[in-house]
Amino acid sequence: MMTSDGREQGGIGREAKSGAAIAAQRHRRQLVLAVGITAVIAAAATVLVVRQHDKDATVHTPDGARQAASRFVEELGSADMSNPTTRHAIVERVYAPADIEAKQTELDTGYTLANRAMGLDSKGRPPAGARFENRTMVAGTSLTTYTDTDATVAVWNCATVRRTGPAPIDETRWYTTSMVLTWVGGEREWRLRSLSEQPGPTPRPGQTQPMQ
């Protein structure tokens, strides 16, 4: 049967059915894609929650506080503290957010004098041809106090400072550093509020680690 424009009526029906089928197929694909994207987002969110839970379970603990204190002592006792750029980065990741600005100013002043005393330039570099080394190694930790929001950790450590060249420096000293930490909920990690340091104890040959 022909239509007024000369096309077969059956052809129009077939075209309509074909168009409807294509539209339905596209709709199904869109639904499948939407469901797939939703599933991926949900799975990613679940992974993040699980990872965060695992982090809290290991970090927001007495052992987590002790590990954080050990890391802070090593970073704050490194040669990177003599360079303003790397020092600022260390202070940013070690100290509690409320204390960062004041500590940056305090340490900038302190290291300007310390660098001069050790024969280093303003960026912590020794004279040409000389070498500079500053390392701190943790020998043990002791948890003094602990709550969900605060912790105090005593860190027994050995600091080594060496510089070759004119008037060389070669010192190794033992310290006990008391670190007051706070749990920063936004960062979900321990941060440093303050520290105090006193010499010793210096181990005798063969002495075992006094802190556990």
List keywords for this structure.
4 helices, 4-stranded antiparallel beta sheet, disordered N terminus, alpha+beta, 212 residues
Can you walk me through this structure?
Helix 3 runs antiparallel to helix 4 (100-117). The relative contact order is 0.12. The model is unreliable at 1-5 and 42-53 (pLDDT under 50). The protein is an alpha+beta fold. The chain has four helices and four strands, in the order ααααββββ.
Layout of helices and strands:
Layout: H1 9-59, H2 62-76, H3 84-94, H4 100-117, E1 132-146, E2 150-163, E3 169-184, E4 189-199
Antiparallel strand pairs: 1-2, 2-3, 3-4
What's the short story on this structure?
With 212 residues, the chain is α+β, with helices and mostly antiparallel strands.
Radius of gyration, CA atoms, in whole angstroms? 32 Å
Strand content: 25-35%
Count of beta strands: 4
Total of DSSP H or I helical runs spanning 4+ residues? 4
Order of helices and strands: HHHHEEEE
Sum up the overall morphology in one term: elongated
Going across the biggest sheet, name each strand in turn.
1-2-3-4
Low-confidence stretches: 1-5, 42-53
C-alpha termini separation: 97 Å
Largest sheet: 4 strands, antiparallel
Q: Could you estimate the helical fraction of the residues in percent? A: 40-55%
Average pLDDT, rounded to a whole number, is: 83
Query: Which structural class do the helices and strands define?
Result: alpha+beta
